[in-house]
TrEMBL record:
Every Histidine kinase/HSP90-like ATPase domain range: 27-183
GO cellular component annotations of the record: cytoplasm
Gene: htpG
The keyword ATP-binding belongs to this UniProt entry's keyword annotation: yes
UniProtKB keywords: ATP-binding, Chaperone, Cytoplasm, Nucleotide-binding, Stress response
Record protein name field: Chaperone protein HtpG
Amino acid sequence: TTAPQTRKFEAEVAQVLHLVTHSLYSHKEIFLRELISNASDACDKLRFEALANPALTEGDAELRIDISFDAEARTLTLRDNGIGMSQDEVIENIGTIARSGTRKFLESLSGDARKDTQLIGQFGVGFYSAFIVADKVTLITRRAGNAPGEGVRWESDGSGEYTLEAIEAPRGSSVILHLKQDETEFLSAWKLRDLISKYSDHIAFPIRLPVQKDGKSTDEFETVNHAAALWTRPKSELKDEDYQGFYKSLSHDFNDAASWTHNRVEGSQSYTLLLYLPAKPPLDAMFNGRDERKGLKLYIRRVFIMDASEQLLPAYLRFMRGVVDSDDLPLNVSREILQDNRLVAQIRAACTKRSLDLLEKLANDDKEKFQAFIDNFGNVLKEGIAEDTANRERIAKLLRFASTASEGQARTVSLDDYIGRMTVGQEAIYYISADGYGAAKGSPQIEALRARNVEVLLMFDRIDEWMLGYLHEYAGKKLRNVAKGDLELDKLGDGGDKQAREEAEKAAEPVLAKLKELLSERVRDVRVSQRLTDSPSCLVLDEYDMASHMQRLMREAGH
Ligand code: ADP
Ligand code: MG
């Protein structure tokens, strides 16, 4: 063996470590959840690699996580016989911040401790959470397939440096926490059992604690969790806490999920879906654009294969989180195969349908939670109008808008609400689109409609104009932009006083002629308008002209 070498953490690691240990103290027991989750991931990875190379299990294929403690030495040890790490992997995974989002994450911290805790929680602090309760952490690990002498001993007090040493080690990883002076509570089988059932019961591998006798640990271990993948258990056996606990470890979210749907499908192919709707936007939604989506894990016969959000969910449902476990896909499936596979297409359609079912149910059963969904993800859902023709009507039914009949700019009005309030003779759904709420609401073009008690939907989100290009009709009613074409106001409400209007038009003729002459270069026509009640004039587009808001966007884009 060679002498231990000392290395420095990347600057960002030191920063994250400092933040984690200081801002997460009030949630300190999450370290156990994070380390168990890493051990479980390591077991998943070994099981997956062993599919192609069974020799990797070295005759020890019963994957498990053992947790033990030594009250006198004040150490807590988590040992897994999963994939382990080579020296390079330790340096890469533990000594640097490989995850691309980290820098942006650090930049997004506000300095407000409460908010930052939320952010860090959602970010998933992972391995470094050990330093919340430990003043020194030792990691002993060996990569499956490497020779027994190729183990690695890593150690750090979390202050900026770590040591590395080559040693003999069994396959897998042991994380030894040297607990801080005050953290005595974790040196108790009772406390550990309690935390495991609270946060890690759903872990699919056995988590074991030493059997206690006369208040002392024996050499024998007993399993303390269910050790079955949560989604494989019957719904009748699962409590809300079980689902929420699984959601939190799946998503690294501190908050409860808003809702979920759990289904077993058996037929021409069999699979299980467990899909969650988060209550708040997960942090990765801020980092990941549409190209790098995450959050839906594909399992095949209980073996974790890969994150397959892109293959299993359309982009407009990218806020959903969850698990799909297929009985029929081949274990050696690749991303390319997933992209173009009949079974996958069926599962994707089922995920879409179940997600829309969930949203419909939420809209009917829990107005408050549904409104939070609209506020957080409503604009993402709007993409579905363009993207998913087959479900366009269902998606449109879920959308909410501000309108001249609702309070402020909150999007609360559904198209069905609108139709329910349509006035005598009204055939279309009217909307105005503008750059902002104020511009929409104050637009002179809606005056005549307001005067006739006709509601107008106010569209002012960036995506609206694009969405409206695909949403021409809902429930048999045309959607009409009040800034375009002839509104046929005669038919609406009481129709107004036709004779008085004709007289007014006649009286205005000389003025119109003069205006047309003056503006001939700049407008196509000048007309007496029924649109206006208070404003003297407004610009109107022909029915098939691009909406003015869109014209402005095009100009900005250099067209
Ligand atoms: P994450 O789990 O989100 O990737 P962590 O900070 O928890 O982030 O872990 C960082 C990386 O360290 C993991 O991705 C994994 O590669 C490695 N790692 C951590 N714990 C273990 C373990 N028990 N066995 C093998 N690898 C591990
Ligand atoms: Mg982790």
